[in-house]
Write a structure and sequence with these properties.
384 residues, 0% strand, mainly alpha, 71% helix
Length: 384
């Protein structure tokens, strides 16, 4: 499959590739080749921006709605978990607007087994996130979630051949320090008033969920590289739908096995916003998490698991700001310091990507003797 570039562990795609290209002088000056390359580059950036918007908007809105569910009388962790994965039917109509690709079915059993395994893992991971969201203030919950980038970097090192550099290590250290600071700030008076013991439970569950989700991202990227091998919008949708379907089945079984389903009627009647508010909260939370899932899987397909996590960290300030504005959370001095440290770690990681991009472009110029865009159309030279 060729050597993966240092800064991007992207699967090889028939439509896009991130690699040095060899064009003759005639091809370089060909208007047709230049136009195709320019169109491909614009298309790639449009998809990147679209997936990034899905990821950030879906995550921010769904997290706030999840917190509101608990604040207004919701008590079921399994219901809070179910809405994170049950929204997949809204994606099914989009499959009719995409073309089935038989080349992605070369190893159907292996791909099916992978989707089932990740679906089960996703159900457990979403439960841990739900517990963390129940017992932690939004600000604390969001900042601890920043540790996901560090976990993803570690998993990417072993699973996706991601290289560690001084800036990456600096980023990991800062994100770890940011999360550790929050252990010493179990304040009351936020949007949740959990006891010290529940605060610790929420903290541990959120850290474990962040690590688990980071591992799922790296495994998903590995599956794209080894099992799917071709980038299509349909593949993104199908993987999201199948994994969410498996996770939904697991959560529904757990909901009935735990007996929580017996209390749902009383929970709905006692919800502060009424029955309609209860149902609307759950419905829009499900939509938000599904939009987030499409954006996340799309970014993994386009670039890498680690890059998807980095874009997710762009939304780091969104949660605390929205929590202060709409939920009455307090931004204490220690939390503010933790946020600054986390953002410092994020900037350190982004700067490493910037250096890697410059290095790759310089290598392209030295090998090919011409300056080419980062993303090119693989079939361009063949078409000439």
């Amino acid at each position: 499959m060729g050597e993966v570039q240092p800064q991007i562990n992207a699967p090889i795609s028939d439509d896009f590739c991130v690699r040095p290209c060899t064009l003759t002088e005639a091809e370089e000056n060909s208007p047709e080749i230049n136009n195709k390359s320019l169109l491909t580059r614009y298309k790639w950036w449009f998809q990147m921006l679209l997936y990034s918007f899905f990821l950030l908007s879906g995550s921010g809105s769904a997290t706030i709605l999840g917190r509101l569910y608990y604040n207004n009388g919701g008590k079921s962790n399994w219901i809070a978990t179910l809405v994170q994965v049950i929204g997949f039917p809204i994606l099914i109509p989009f499959l009719f607007f995409t073309t089935a690709d038989t080349e992605n079915r070369r190893r159907p059993l292996a791909l099916a087994a992978f989707n089932v395994a990740i679906g089960v893992f996703l159900a457990v991971d979403c439960l841990l996130f739900s517990i963390g969201l129940r017992y932690l203030p939004i600000i604390t919950y969001t900042l601890i979630g920043a540790s996901q980038l560090g976990f993803n970097a570690v998993f990417s090192l072993f699973l996706n051949r991601q290289k560690f550099t001084p800036f990456i290590v600096n980023s990991l250290v800062l994100l770890t320090v940011s999360s550790t600071l929050l252990v010493f700030d179990p304040e009351s008076g936020d949007s949740t008033a959990a006891s010290g013991r529940k605060y610790v439970v929420g903290f541990v569950c959120t850290v474990a969920a962040s690590a688990g989700y980071a591992m799922m991202l790296s495994l998903t990227q590995l599956a794209f590289q080894k099992l799917i091998k071709k980038e299509t919008a349909r593949a993104v949708m199908e993987m999201t739908i199948y994994q969410s379907l498996v996770a939904s089945i697991v959560v529904v079984i757990a909901l009935f096995a735990s007996g929580e389903w017996r209390h749902l009627g009383g929970e709905m009647d006692g919800y502060k916003r009424g029955k309609v508010g209860y149902l609307m909260n759950l419905a829009w939370t499900a939509v938000g998490w599904q939009v987030f899932g499409v954006g996340c899987v799309g970014l993994i397909f386009q670039v890498s698991a680690l890059f998807a996590n980095v874009i997710g960290m762009l939304g780091l300030p969104m949660g605390p700001v929205l929590a202060v504005m709409f939920l009455g959370d307090r931004l204490s001095g220690l939390k503010a310091v933790a946020m600054v440290v986390a953002m410092w770690g994020f900037v350190s990681y982004i700067y490493q990507h910037y250096l890697d991009d410059l290095e790759m472009k310089e290598r392209q110029r030295s090998e090919d003797g011409v300056q080419l865009p980062l993303v090119d159309q693989r079939g361009a030279s063949a078409a000439s």
